[in-house]
């Protein structure tokens, strides 16, 4: 058992070259934790940052007993960072928020209100503060993904999610699969998710890691990967065992 086992919720924060956002992250997350409706901690996953992000993360963890980190040897991508967070978290719930803070940590409490009745609760960004071009790409990509997955998720790109950890650990993660978390959760027997409106803010520091390929064309191609996985996903339930 690692230290996250002492908490009800582990908030996973993937970080890749977000040095300029770390001060705001520390302020906002440390302010949220005392008011979280579930006892919560923060788990930074440094995705092989090339700037001073890792050094800054270590400093934050020294200042706060509820902050932890793991660091990759080299950049592996957002899906890998999320999988590592799922793998290392031992709390009953895991949450996810992006390091750019375009969503508000306080809105985790909105998601936590519903999590007991669902496998997963995800945010829907209201009043999005992105450019019209980025919004148009997201709208088209989301529409095509819904058509291919039939998951009913409105905004899979919203970086505010809460998942039961046992469900998260069974998600088959591959590169690009972070965009399909609701659909991947639904592969599990009796799984369900709820969507909750959350606030959205413009990025004020750092640079977006997304462009036309990885926001639009890449996800379209990944839809076919999901369709292949859906037909082959394994579900089972143990009837008897003497292992315990």
How would you sum up this structure, described in words?
This protein is of the alpha/beta class and 244 residues long. It has one domain (3-230): Spore Coat Polysaccharide Biosynthesis Protein SpsA, Chain A (Alpha-Beta Complex), CATH 3.90.550.10. Helices cover 35% and strands 18% of the residues. It is built from 8 helices and 7 strands. It has helices spanning 22-32, 53-63, 78-88, 108-112, 132-149, 165-168, 181-186, 212-230; strands at residues 9-15, 40-46, 67-71, 93-97, 120-126, 160-164, 193-199. The protein has a 7-stranded mixed sheet with strand order 3-2-1-4-6-5-7, with helices on both faces. Helix 5 packs parallel to helix 8 (212-230). The longest helix is centred in the C-terminal third of the chain and has 19 residues, at 212-230. It starts with 8 loop residues before the first strand and ends in a 14-residue tail after the last helix.
Label the CATH architecture.
Alpha-Beta Complex
Report the CATH C-level class.
Answer: Alpha Beta
**Fourth-level CATH superfamily:** Spore Coat Polysaccharide Biosynthesis Protein SpsA, Chain A
Helix content: 25-40%
The gross shape turns out to be: globular
CATH topology value: Spore Coat Polysaccharide Biosynthesis Protein SpsA, Chain A
Report the sheet with the most strands, covering strand number, pairing sense and barrel closure.
7 strands, mixed
């Amino acid at each position: 058992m690692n230290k996250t086992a002492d908490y009800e919720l582990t908030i996973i924060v993937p970080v890749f070259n977000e040095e300029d956002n770390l001060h705001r992250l520390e302020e906002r997350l440390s302010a949220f934790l005392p008011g979280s409706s579930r006892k919560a901690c923060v788990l930074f996953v440094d995705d092989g940052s090339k700037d001073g992000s890792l050094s800054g993360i270590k400093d934050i963890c020294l200042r706060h007993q509820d902050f932890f980190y793991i660091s990759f040897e080299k950049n592996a991508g957002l899906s890998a960072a999320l999988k590592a967070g799922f793998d290392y978290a031992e709390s009953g719930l895991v949450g996810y928020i992006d390091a750019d803070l375009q969503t508000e940590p306080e809105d985790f409490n909105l998601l936590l209100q519903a999590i007991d009745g669902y496998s997963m609760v995800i945010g829907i960004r209201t009043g999005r503060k992105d450019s019209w071009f980025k919004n148009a790409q997201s709208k088209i990509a989301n529409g095509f993904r819904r058509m291919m997955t039939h998951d009913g998720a409105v905004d899979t790109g919203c970086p505010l999610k809460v998942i039961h950890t046992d469900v998260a650990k069974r998600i088959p993660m591959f590169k690009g699969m972070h965009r399909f978390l609701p659909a991947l959760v639904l592969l599990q027997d009796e799984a369900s998710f709820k969507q909750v409106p959350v606030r959205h803010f413009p990025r004020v520091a750092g640079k977006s890691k997304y462009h036309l390929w990885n926001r639009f064309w890449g996800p379209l191609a990944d839809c076919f990967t999901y369709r292949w996985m859906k037909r082959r996903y394994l579900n089972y339930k143990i009837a008897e065992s003497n292992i315990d």
